[in-house]
Write a structure and sequence with these properties.
22% helix; 5-stranded parallel sheet; binds flavin-adenine dinucleotide; 311 residues
Length: 311
């Protein structure tokens, strides 16, 4: 990463977020010879760096660690001249046809902005959750279900995502226990019907998880029945937490209208309601929330950002 002091303040394109969407956007804009800056508040690579093995990213038949994939994407974008800075974007203002990106390390000016700040899975915030993330605790069944063949797993949540994940897990696991804090699911009826008809899926109603325990990997969870207060334990090899998403869009509320979950609405060019401001990846309304779709969005946004600038 460049030290902020050495980073210019004016760019053709500024990209916010260094996950697969932002890094791919940066590769495309830099390769198109646009002077581009990527702003990343944490580790370049985004959420995918937490995936132990990514085996659904095309081009890697043996799979690749998420960390390595992030590093390679970064390396490739930098090869074409992408600059980067460690800073947190705190807002965007429109200024005389240009965009001012406010950050914790000062302001940057750009002709076009690509927002790729992703979203985070909501956490339960209970003991053991952080310790066992990637060691049995997962926030993505599409990504990790295949690692849990013929073992018992739990899904925490009762919405569409939780039930979709439970149904997906039932193809692999020996048993899927859905743990929900209410007495009925929030998921759509068709999903509920499928889940109730699936013999491998069982339900624990009015129940919350209080603790995740194990050795090197998850072994059990501690539960509390919210109505009776009764406590119990459940032996599992995997715990999938699906209690919603939190998009990283708080800093954009004053400039963009977001959907009710805080995601950004774009058109097919990845452009938002403000010309020259694009959004890509998990942060986008209706994103499939995969590394490859994020990368695809990033490429699309970059191509249309280039067109926007040249027009
Ligand atoms: C454990 C795990 C395993 C996964 N496994 C797979 C898999 O096997 N296959 C697959 O396809 N997908 C997988 N995913 C999903 C995949 O990681 C995401 O879909 C993808 O990373 C989304 O990319 P993105 O660039 O849109 O956002 P992110 O990867 O979330 O990147 C956003 C970046 O923006 C930064 N940021 C946020 N706010 C700001 C701000 N204000 N200023 C500056 N920077 C900011 C964040 O630090 C982050 O680095 C997995 C996810 C997890 C959590």
């Amino acid at each position: 990463m460049n030290m902020n002091m050495n980073v210019n303040k004016e760019y053709e394109v500024v990209i916010i977020g260094g996950g697969p969407a932002g890094l791919t956007a940066g590769l495309y804009t830099s390769r198109a010879r646009l002077n581009s800056l990527l702003i990343e508040k944490g580790l370049v690579g985004g959420q995918i760096v937490t995936a132990e093995l990514v085996d659904n990213y095309p081009g890697f038949p043996e799979g690749i660690s998420g960390f390595e994939l992030g590093q390679l994407m970064h390396q490739q974008a930098r090869k074409y001249g992408l600059k980067d800075v460690i800073a947190e974007a705190t807002g965007i203002e429109l200024r005389e046809g240009q965009k001012k990106i406010k950050t914790t390390e000062g302001n940057f000016i750009a002709k076009a902005v690509i927002i790729a700040s992703g979203s985070e899975r909501r956490k339960l915030g209970i003991p053991g959750e952080e310790k066992f993330t990637g060691k049995g605790v997962s926030y993505c069944a599409t990504c990790d279900a295949a690692f849990f063949r013929e073992v018992p797993v739990a899904v925490v949540g009762g919405g569409d995502t939780a039930i979709t994940e439970a149904l997906h897990l039932a193809k692999f696991a020996s048993k899927v226990m859905v743990i929900h804090r209410r007495d009925q699911l929030r998921a759509t009826r068709i999903l509920q019907e499928k889940a109730f008809a699936e013999p491998k899926i069982e339900f624990l109603w009015n129940t919350v998880v209080e603790d995740i325990e194990g050795g090197d990997i998850v072994q059990r969870i501690r539960l509390r029945q919210v109505k009776t207060g009764e406590k119990s334990t459940l032996d599992i090899s995997g715990g999938f937490i699906s209690v919603g998403l939190k998009p990283n869009t708080d800093y954009l509320k004053s400039i963009l209208s977001l959907d009710i979950t805080g995601l950004i609405i774009t058109d097919g060019k990845m452009e938002t309601e403000i010309p020259g401001i694009f959004a890509a990846g998990d942060i986008r309304h209706n994103s499939a929330r995969q590394a490859i779709t994020a990368a695809g969005d990033g490429a699309t946004a970059a191509i249309y950002a280039e067109k926007f600038i040249s027009e």
